[in-house]
Specification:
The protein is α/β, with parallel strands linked by helices and 287 residues long. The chain has helices at 2-7, 60-67, 90-94, 113-123, 128-141, 157-170, 187-203, 239-242, 246-251, 258-268, 278-286; strands at residues 19-31, 34-45, 49-54, 75-80, 83-84, 97-100, 175-179, 208-212, 224-229, 232-237. The protein is 37% helix and 23% strand. The chain has a six-stranded mixed β-sheet, with helices on both faces. Helix 7 links the parallel strand 7 (175-179) and strand 8. The structure holds adenosine-5'-triphosphate and magnesium ion. Adenosine-5'-triphosphate binds next to helix 2.
Length: 287
Amino acid sequence: MKKDKELTFIRDKDISLDSAVTFKNVSFFYEKERPCLKNISFDIKRGEFISIIGHNGSGKSTLSKLIDGILAQNEGDIYIFGVKMQDNNAIQLRKDIALVFQNPDSQFIGATCRDDIAFGLENMQVKQEDMEEIIDDCLRKVGMEEYKDAEPANLSGGQKQRIAIASALARKPKILILDEASAMLDPKGKKEIEDIIFERKKEDKDLTIINITHEIDETINSDRVLVLSKGNLVMSDTPNKVFSNDEFLTSIHLSLPFDHLLVKELNKLGYEIEYDDHEGLIEKICR
Ligand SMILES: Nc1ncnc2c1ncn2[C@@H]1O[C@H](COP(=O)(O)OP(=O)(O)OP(=O)(O)O)[C@@H](O)[C@H]1O
Ligand SMILES: [Mg+2]
């Protein structure tokens, strides 16, 4: 029995040492006759910033729940940092993963923002004397220092999501998954969440970020974009490569980011402009 327990946390030698999340031929269904994710394989590296896009019902949230071990796949294998996820180690592996959902109201436990973050820390058995410093640090990271004693219910949607992200960060996750975390926010709120994500990525090179989003413009600065369609992984490439396939993306009901739409229109008008990045595009247009 002891031996089984020990073996559970051994890295699989076939999985690369820098892998954070690996799917090998993973399939999942809620109802047998309707497969939800079909034979999905990918490898997300430690510190990578991944965007996942796909139309409604393509399986994005289900995928995030499989990574977080909330759901278990019907076929294939899932590895977290090279360790195969199994019934007896899923809880342990989940400790490195934090998931922020779309609806901010469904994620609060504490009566104040402080208590909400403290709850997660208590679960991790963080010492009382270390708690306030961690709470202050996480509130600072999301620009919510002034709201430590505020009741989450009285915050705006954007502020609630920032507290939800602070609670997630307090757990010191190695993998942060945001499942449409800014979907219910206005443009200003969306931009604030986007900035927080980019800031995290800049400050913590080891943090693996998986951002599930319908905001195509949010994805252009990620390292890689995974595209889901009807439960299939149909693309996994750099944003520039993915968004150069505009006809295919349109066929699966996805649009192009604004920058790429602009380049397409300029090309139609006879300007030979290639897209590298946002700043480069502005420079080329100004010339
Ligand atoms: N609890 C459930 N029971 C049965 N079917 C479900 C359940 N949750 C999701 N599904 C189905 O699984 C498929 C994928 O759903 P999922 O929520 O993963 O998609 P999504 O890409 O996150 O969609 P959205 O963009 O709308 O959030 C859909 O057909 C959905 O109806
Ligand atoms: Mg979803």
